[in-house]
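User: Please fill in residues for this 396-position structure.
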């Protein structure tokens, strides 16, 4: 009898132990049939893409994601929202329509991007390494206080995606009602947030997580930077021309009293700060004051995307440059900064471009211009164009 009692006790302990281990160790992911039916193999909720633990080089120190950390779940929802044309009133435009993976998440349109009721007011900005920057404001004129706020502003714009609630447009609440009627969103919002409720802040957080996950650190510059202790050292993998261009980029210029360069470098890093190549938040406008409508002047453009992936690895531009999209080559961009002309009415020109109150005259030689361009080409990566976790989930 005693032996039977001991055996029963041991079996009971084993059963309790196994049951506890099963409950504590394994998370059961519910079936989400509509996600499976819509996205097939592009999204596997049991095996999410890696968004939250990507490799970041040790020399990259800026990070503006602290208030909305990237999660695999949140970025997965953000990816769907980013590519979904249901976010425009006529089901034709998504965020990805103006921010294309094949163009480093910029637009290869010459100037304006197409919307549902017209075109964008400025050239679409590339979305590379937005996380790795001190600047937290968005749009060329910094009118959005954060990336989160920015993400839904194009949706609520009459010309862009059309849920403005004005001019006879549907409102953002109408968009939420639309999304609430889509079965895969019921499942995805439950998966990410624990319930089906859809709110603007949830949409904003998910979109911002996906956008901040888009990163590029596989350029020739990065390969060289890992071999040295700071940017000022010659990179062993660079040509002499590329190292010369790097020195020109990093070294501040010396000017005479008339704003003419008499020594030093050309000082690009004063505004475009290595190694992230993000824009200094204190920057003012760069001397380009045109508008896409060709009426009046625009002196409010003080932000710029990272200089990483200006071009593809074959040297072709991902998109035309500046908020007007009116500069079509790197040579032309370098030429603009070589000779700054202060346009009438431009009271917001950055002080670094008007030494002594005069537009800077860098007086670069042809060889210096060529070297600077060669350096900018080293900032081109390759993975960002092909990585499936940033591609459309609607395409198998």
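Assistant: Residues filled in for all 396 positions:
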């Amino acid at each position: 009898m005693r032996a039977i009692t001991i055996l029963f006790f041991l079996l009971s302990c084993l059963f309790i132990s196994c049951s506890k281990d099963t409950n504590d160790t394994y998370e059961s992911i519910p079936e989400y049939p509509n996600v499976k039916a819509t996205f097939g193999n592009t999204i596997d909720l049991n095996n999410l893409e890696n968004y939250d633990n990507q490799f970041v080089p040790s020399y990259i120190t800026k990070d503006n994601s602290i208030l909305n950390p990237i999660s695999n779940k949140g970025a997965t929802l953000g990816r769907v929202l980013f590519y979904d044309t249901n976010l425009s009133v006529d089901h034709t435009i998504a965020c990805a329509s103006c921010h294309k993976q094949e163009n480093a998440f910029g637009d290869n349109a010459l100037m304006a991007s197409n919307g549902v009721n017209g075109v964008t007011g400025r050239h679409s900005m590339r979305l590379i390494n937005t996380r790795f920057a001190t600047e937290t404001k968005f749009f060329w004129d910094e009118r959005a206080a954060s990336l989160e706020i920015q993400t839904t502003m194009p949706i609520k714009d009459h010309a862009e995606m059309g849920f403005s609630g004005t001019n006879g447009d549907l409102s953002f609440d109408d968009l939420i009602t639309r999304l609430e009627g889509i079965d895969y969103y019921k499942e995805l919002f439950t998966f990410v947030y624990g319930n089906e409720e859809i709110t603007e802040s949830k949409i904003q957080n998910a979109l911002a997580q996906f956008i901040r996950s888009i990163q590029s650190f596989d350029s020739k510059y990065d390969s060289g930077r890992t071999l040295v202790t700071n940017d000022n050292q010659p990179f062993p993998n660079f040509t002499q021309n590329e190292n010369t261009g790097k020195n020109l980029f990093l070294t501040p210029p010396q000017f005479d009293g008339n704003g003419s360069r008499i020594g030093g470098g050309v000082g690009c890093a004063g505004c475009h700060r290595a190694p992230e190549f993000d824009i200094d938040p204190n920057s003012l406008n760069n001397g380009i004051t045109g508008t896409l409508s060709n009426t009046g002047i625009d002196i409010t453009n003080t932000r710029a995307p990272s200089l990483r992936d200006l071009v593809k690895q074959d040297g072709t531009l991902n998109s035309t440059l500046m908020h007007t999209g009116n500069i079509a080559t790197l040579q032309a961009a370098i030429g603009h900064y070589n000779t700054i002309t202060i346009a009438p009415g431009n009271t917001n020109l950055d002080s670094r471009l008007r030494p002594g109150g005069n537009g800077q005259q860098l007086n670069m030689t042809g060889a210096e211009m060529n070297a600077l361009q060669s350096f900018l080409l080293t900032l081109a990566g390759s993975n960002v164009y092909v990585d499936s976790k940033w591609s459309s989930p609607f395409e198998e």
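For context: DSSP finds twelve helices and six strands in the chain.
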